[in-house]
Design a protein that fits this description.
single chain, 159 residues, mainly alpha, 82% helix, disordered C terminus
């Protein structure tokens, strides 16, 4: 059972890092191209970001939950697993804070396309970029540590 839990935790965390990077690359390409006007970019953000946060919450929460269930897995080691779980919990808290205190006010500003965006929007957007970059970086570090080959006796015997 712990093998399954470790696999789900590893997969969820790695999937989130890949999905988040793909999302960011796509969003940056759209924002920097001349194909879309400002109202269209606002609509794209309103459509895509809820899925981004939902997908992130689910995958990070799965990684944390199943990681906790696999916390005594011999392939990872207790100290490394504990550190990974702390990183994943921190990433989840950062995403929650970003969603409620940064993204939600931005969403409300984007929902009114006829009004000019307030100056606060730029500050919130910058904060969101930094918080998300750190959160994805933390998840990348945790995924690397969690996926690093173990040193258990079973691995040494198989090698």
């Amino acid at each position: 059972m712990t093998n399954f839990c470790l696999m789900v935790s590893r997969y969820s965390l790695t999937a989130w890092v890949g999905a988040a990077v793909l999302f960011v690359v796509t969003a940056v390409q759209e924002a920097t191209s001349d194909q879309f006007d400002s109202p269209t970019l606002s609509n794209l953000a309103l459509v895509r970001f809820p899925a981004y946060y939902l997908f992130g919450f689910v995958l990070i929460a799965l990684a944390l939950f199943f990681g906790c269930l696999a916390r005594n897995h011999a392939d990872v080691g207790r100290r490394r697993m504990r550190f990974c779980l702390i990183l994943v919990a921190l990433a989840l808290l950062m995403m929650l804070a970003d969603y409620f205190w940064i993204y939600s006010p931005m969403r409300d500003m984007l929902a009114v396309p006829t009004e000019a965006r307030p100056a606060r929007f730029v500050d919130l957007h910058q904060a969101s970029k930094y918080v998300n970059a750190v959160q994805i970086g933390i998840c990348l570090l945790a995924a690397a540590m969690l996926n690093w080959p173990g040193t258990s006796r079973s691995n040494q015997a198989d090698g």
